[in-house]
Design brief:
2 domains; Glutaredoxin; about 160 residues; two-stranded parallel ribbon; alpha+beta; about 15% strand; two-stranded antiparallel ribbon; 6 helices
Length: about 160
């Protein structure tokens, strides 16, 4: 339900949501109808039925010591090139942290667009870590811009 409520925020970030469940299509329909009737929230993304648990097993989403048919709550952030960039696993009894998922998406999109890194607890709009220049020419360009002194390169930050 958290993803459904925040679907517009994911859409703003150009994120396509997909659900996966080891339940049947009929269970998904009943589940979505219940959410809509009880909480007045529509689920605007597809939910894939994985009855044989092929995908759930492949991605380690079934924790055998607890129960062979109870999946953990997993979030996979997959980039446009189909690379899994981040994974967050939550025990079945623990809800997901939607703000952390947004933070991770924002950070990945920022580092991809700006060739930088983000520090711990970084949020959109905060300073990022600028890597040291890779070539002599790049270092001269940075020095010419007056942006940083040589000793600061490895610790430098800038707002994006």
């Amino acid at each position: 339900m958290g993803f459904a409520e925040l679907a517009p925020e994911f859409e703003k970030r150009n994120v396509q949501l997909v659900g996966l469940s080891i339940d049947s299509v009929y269970s998904h329909i009943a589940w979505m109808r219940n959410i809509e009737e009880t909480f007045k929230v529509k689920v605007p993304f597809p939910v894939i039925a994985d009855l044989d648990q092929a995908v759930a097993q492949l991605y380690g989403m079934v924790h055998q010591p607890m129960n062979a048919t109870m999946t953990v709550r997993c979030v996979f952030i997959i980039d446009p090139k189909q690379n899994v960039r981040a994974m967050v696993y939550y025990p079945m009894q623990v809800g997901r942290n939607m703000q952390e998922i947004f933070r991770a998406v924002d950070a990945l999109q920022t580092v991809d667009a700006n060739a930088c890194a983000t520090p711990a607890n970084w949020k959109r709009g905060e300073e990022v870590i600028v890597p040291a220049p890779a070539t002599l020419g790049a270092s001269r360009e940075r020095e010419k811009d007056g942006a940083l002194h040589v000793k600061q390169w490895y610790l430098s930050t800038k707002k994006i």
